[in-house]
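=== RUN LOG ===
request id: a7f3
mode: sequence -> structure
chains: 1
length: 155
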Amino acid sequence: MRVVRVLRVGAVAGAAFAVMGAAPGAPGPEADLAYHGSATMSGGRIDVRFTPRNHGPSAVPDATVRLRWSKPLATGETLPVGCARSGERVVVCRTGALAADEVGQRMEVRVQLRDVSSEVVLELDTVWGGGAVDVNRANDQQRVLVLDTGDTYYF
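=== RESULT ===
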């Protein structure tokens, strides 16, 4: 019985590594994800528009980007398909497949702060890269100060 249980655990672990695209101890394919866009805030409502890009050299079957605000978000908001709340200040969104050296679909996320504030810091970063290794994390981590002026701030 014990041997069967160990084999099952090993099979599940092996399947998990196969899905992630790497064997234990072996690096996955290399990709370089980046996010560029803009953010605008007016009356505590924040509009974020950004485009993911994969600089390659390998394709990414899917990735997840995290948007984190320095202030809590209002509850009960409707988010775009592929996005979900993962905390009082955090939204995560799927990017979809990103071919090597290609730009992905433009993404638009609109949220409302719980309390109106004169400013908020928005941070974007990759949480999951589809099993790919990103050795240049500098361009997939963005941080922007957004003032409640209605002006557009680019990142």
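=== NOTES ===
Helices lie at 2-20.
Strands lie at 33-42, 45-54, 64-69, 83-87, 90-94, 102-103, 107-112, 119-128, 141-147, 152-154.
=== END ===
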